[in-house]
Every structure is written in C-alpha cells, then in structure tokens.
Amino acid sequence: MSEIDTSNLDFIRTIVAQDLAAGKNDGRLVTRFPPEPNGYLHIGHAKSICLNFGLAQEYPQGVCHMRFDDTNPEKESVEYTEAIQADVKWLGFDWGENLFYASDYFDVLYDYAVQLVAMGKAYVCSLTAEEMRAYRGTLKEPGKNSPHRQRSVTENLALLEGMKNGEFSDGAHVLRAKIDMASPNINMRDPIIYRIRKVSHHRTGDKWCIYPMYDFTHSLSDAMEKITHSLCTLEFADHRPLYDWFLDTLQTPCHPQQIEFARLNLNFTVMSKRKLMQMVDEKLVNGWDDPRMLTISGLRRRGYTPASIRRFCAEIGVAKRESRIDMGILENAVRDDLNDIAPRRLAVLHPLKVVITNYPEEKEEELTVANHPKNPEMGTRLIPFSREIYIDHDDFLEEPPKKFFRLAPGREVRLRAAYFITCNEVVKDAEGAIIELRCSYDPASRGGSSPDGRKVKATLHWVSARHAVAAEIRLYDRLFNQANPEADPDIDFKEHLNPDSLQILADCRVEPSLLEATSSDYFQFERVGFFHLDSKESRPARPVFNRTVTLRDTWAKVAAQ
RNA sequence: UGGGGCGUCGUCAAGCGGUAAGACACAGGCCUUUGACGCCUGCAUUCGUAGGUUCGAAUCCUACCGCCCCAGCCA
User: CA at A329, C1' at B6: how many angstroms apart?
Assistant: First the structure.
C-alpha cells in the first residue's frame, strides 16, 4: 500500500483514504445522504450532510447521492422532500443527477424479498404485534421461534403475493427474515422485512399496500446505488450485522461498508425531529423555521450563513465518542464568517434622544462612513446627521462606575464617524426616568477626531432622529434553560423551555440605508451584533431584523462583576 | 446482569510504542473612530482506575470502574 498521510483526518476520512489508496471499490468513492422526509433538517443533519457531501468533494472521483428513505408513508410528505432539498442546496451541496428515492426501488425490493422466501430465508409470520414481542425474548433471554417459521416456500410465496395484492388487512401478516431467534443481537431475531400498510404513499400512490422496513431497504438501496461507504450514526452499529446479512444472503453485486459515527448534541437545545415537531405542533415556536430553532431553515432565517454552518461542522469533527457541544462553538463560527463579510451599519435598539444644543436647528449634513473597518473594498456610505439624534440607552449612565467609559454627565465621547459630544444636562420625566440628554458638540471634531489630538475613551453608535427608520428588532436567546433538556426522562423536555427566548423590540431606530436591506444581506450593527432581515415578518416600510448573534462583549463581563 | 459502542484540558478533538497537535472557552498584555476584529503570552509532568509487558506506554496485555445504545409491524 502506498504511503498516505492520514494525520489530522478523522477516523472515517482515514478509512476512506486508506481504501482509496488500496484500490478498493475500483477506486470509486460514493457516499449518500439518506434523510427520511418526515420533518425538517436540523443542525445535526448538517453534520451528516457536511460529512457525506464534503467527503465526496475531497476527491475528484467522489460522488454523494441524495436519497430519500421514504418507506413509511404515514409520516412522510412531499412538503418535507422539497424542504430538505432546498436546505441541502442552500448549505452549498449538489447531488447533480443523483437524486433517488427508496420508493423508486419498491419493485426491485419486492423481487429481492421473493428471492429470500424462495431461498427459505424469509417467511410470512401471522403473529400479532403483541405476540411477536413476547416471542422476541428480552435483552438477556433468547426469543422463541414463531409457529409460522416452518411454513413451506410455496405457502410463503402465496401469502406474500396475497399481502402485496391487498388480500389481508393491516397487521394480519408480516414478512420476516429467518435468521436466529436466539441471537444475542435482537436485530437478528427474525427481523421484519415487510409490513402491510394500506395507506397511499406520496410518490407511489396506492400501488403498494406493503412497505419494506428500514434495514432491508437501506442495505439494498446502498448496494443498488453502488455506495462505497455508508455512513450512519452510532445507534445503527447494532444493525450492521443485519445490513451485512441482507447483502451477503442476496449476493448483491457490491457490498458497501457501513461506518458509524456519533451524532451531534448541542447544549441548550433538543435534536430530534420528533421533539422539534412537537414544539411546532404545540405552537411553542412559530414553525419549523422559527429563528430560535436549530433547523437549517431556522438558522437561515436567523441569519446564519451556509459557510458558517459548514465551518462549524468542520470544527466539531467526526468521532465515535458521544459529545455535547457548546452553543458557543456554533456562535463563534457565525461571528467569524460574518465579521469578514458583513457590512457595518448603525442601529439603535433602545433609543435615547440626544439634543445637540449648539448644532443649528435646520442644519443637516452627510457623513461618510466605511462599510468595513478592515476591508476598504466594501466601500463607504453617507449617513445623515442633525441636531437631534438617538443613542443607545445602555451607552449612558448618570453615575458611571469606575470602568464605564461611555457617556456620562460632563463626559466627552465620540459619535462614530461624526463628532465629539459632551453631556451637559440630563432630562427626566415625572417618574425620574431619563428621557433626553442635552449635549454640545465640537465642530472641529467632524469625522470623529479632534485636531488638537485629544482622546476620548468611547465611540458610540447613533442615528439621526429626523432621518432614522423605525424598525422592529428581535433578540433571541437559547430555547431551553437547561444544558440538556432531555437529561431526566421523568421530566418533559418542554418544562425546560426558556420563557425569554424571544424578545421583541418594537421601537428601534436604524440608519436610512437599511430600508433597502433584503434577506440576502448580512449586517453588523456596530457595537451590537450581527443582524439579518426577517424574510417573513418584514414589511417595506417597517423592516424586521433578527439578531443572529451578539458581538463579543467584554464590558458585559466587567459590568457583571 | 445478553449484545454493541465509548472513556485524552471546562467543551470538542489529534495521537496508532519514542516521551500530550489544534479549536472554542478562560486569564493577562498590545492595538483600536466597534469595550468588536486582529496580534502576543499563559493554559493536561498527564491521557477513567489499578496492575503488568517494555530502555521507553495515552498508545500493547489483564482486571476493574463509569457513560451511551438495542426488546417499533419507526428510521
């Protein structure tokens, strides 16, 4: 075998590199992403997508198939197949011509089943579900053979035909592989291959009233597509002997290698489609694409970029050990991407009016501001300035603590790209709440620096009161307030929902240029965070922005002490 | 207690018999018209535990401990 460098490759990439170097599978590399279309994709699927499609991209001959595992029509729908395809494409991956459906194989699969029966390796069992469970034995005790295990091939063939032709009702019979009821691996205790389900399928309609089970379908689908490496999560490791049994027994032209890796777990969220669906159905969130949801569509709406998700998946790696990744890693991945590509804008979330008393009443001017501090190629824009502006309430403290160096009575600060201002007076309402600041500006400091070289410790973001656009801004926090909401099986995970995961700020003021924002833009609102126009709630005259992620906030840490 | 899988920094994760990569987090410093970004420095004498093999072990052997998964006509 030729020398190959596998350092810094995860264990799956190492196996693939070695297989390829050894000339296995005629040098082909074919992976597949096999979602069941019974819900929307989430960040956990992104890990699998990035692994399967990513791996294929790493080799010139690599191919990754998109295949819907649509063998359970009761839970599946075309809505999901469409959403899933849109999500994978948005993530930046392309399956080309290789779009498949397990349901496309139903005819072949049936032939394979007949073949098993003919070989005496499968039989029709007429036990009820409860009886079958009893016959299956337990984890520690072997199962018992079904009384129908010795049916003749002829009888089995006739019965299977009858099942296919709709002669029996749901649950009357089942087709089982004849393996070993005493196997220590429960999956090998004569697993079911076909069940009767008189429901129509989203793709095959009413053609079938029997549907194949996962293990049978998946292994054979992989073989038919000549998949070389069939990657799945750890819980399927116990199924590998069965996967291999189908392929060996039926002597398929190729035998893909199943390799298991650990699924993704993230702190402060849940990662199962069933639970996500429950939150959607119970209206605990506003749909699958609620920006708080860790679905691909939710992340997209929240303002995550495809690159940030790919980057996240690359960072967390692939291994067999179960892990629980901190949300901070995901957040850091978007920050890193957005920091480079997001143009800067000024927006005030909690407006506090500031009157610049020595600035002429009717005067207006336009100030030039860079769109990105480190990337001149992103250009500049003009922002209007006038006598009355808004700054953020958080940027003023009447009695500032030691380390607070923003605005305070008598103190001078810089307005970003504008002027130095000094606070002279604090105006309060009857309740004593601060409602306005009266400041004076230094005309010589236009652009944000003073000719005399005097320094200020803070630079504030601001917006001209007269020109600002009213906007709604939505702040999101973790959906759950428990690191692992599923930790205690006796407590419903929904009990751990964070009641403050959504905060709507209805009265924000943003710079005028933001009126042109679209949901394909990503912005940094300076000193606040990264924001993205909400694709569903925005109206032309009233933009709604989602906070994708905050900026790192050293002051918040200091202030907390 | 049947079978399968896993235990390396707070969280991920390399390492594959030659003397513990990297990322995030954290701490300190520099820079700064974003308390952001960037840059610099520090951060596992130790790899679940205990024995053993070896000149040498996270890596090999043995025993033990702990965690996860499996008894759907779901995937």
Answer: 23
Residue range(s) in chain A whose domain bears CATH number 3.40.50.620: 11-261
**Which nt sits closest to A417, CA to C1'?**
B33
Tens of pLDDT, residues A330-385: 999 999 999 999 999 999 999 999 999 999 999 999 999 999 999 999 999 999 99
Q: Which nucleotide has the least CA–C1' distance to A69?
A: B75
pLDDT at position A3 over 80: no
A345 CA to B8 C1' in angstroms comes to 44
Closest residue by C-alpha to C1' distance, nucleotide B37: A339
Question: Which pair of structure tokens corresponds to residue A227?
Answer: 């998949």
3-state secondary structure labels for all residues of A443-495: HHHCCCCCCCCCCCCCEECEEECCCCEEEEEEEECCCECCCCCCCCCCCCHHH
User: Where do you find CATH 2.40.240.10 in chain A?
Assistant: 266-343+471-560, 347-461
Q: Phi and psi (nearest 5°) for A26?
A: 55, 25
CATH number of A266-343+471-560: 2.40.240.10
- ipTM value of the model? 0.96
Instruction: Work out the pLDDT band at A2, boundaries 50, 70, 90.
Output: very low
Nucleotide nearest to A370 (CA to C1'): B33
Q: What angle do CA A64, A69, A73 make, to 5 degrees?
A: 155
What is the structure's pLDDT at A561? 75
> Measured in angstroms, what separates residue A315's CA from nucleotide B20's C1'?
20
Rounded to two decimals, the pTM is 0.96
In Å, what is the separation between the CA of A552 and the C1' of B23?
17
CB-based contacts of A301, cutoff 8 Å, min separation 6: A289, A290, A291, A532, A534, A535, A536, A546
Which CATH superfamily includes the segment(s) A11-261? HUPs (3.40.50.620)
Indicate which residues of A carry an active-site annotation.
Answer: 36, 263, 273
- Strands A523-525 vs A529-533: parallel, antiparallel or unpaired: antiparallel
Residue whose C-alpha is closest to residue A224's, from A111, A390, A354, A116? A111
Q: Which nucleotides of chain B does any protein CB come within 7 A of?
A: 1-8, 10-16, 21-27, 33-38, 67-75
Nucleotide nearest to A554 in CA–C1' terms: B35
Amino acid at A142: P
Of A108, A67, A71, give the one whose Cα is nearest residue A250. Answer: A108
CATH pick for A347-461 out of 2.60.40.290, 2.40.240.10, 2.60.15.10, 1.20.1560.10: 2.40.240.10
Protein CA at A258 to nucleotide C1' at B1, angstroms: 30
Whether A72 contacts A200, CB under 8 Å? no
B13 C1' closest Cα residue = A317
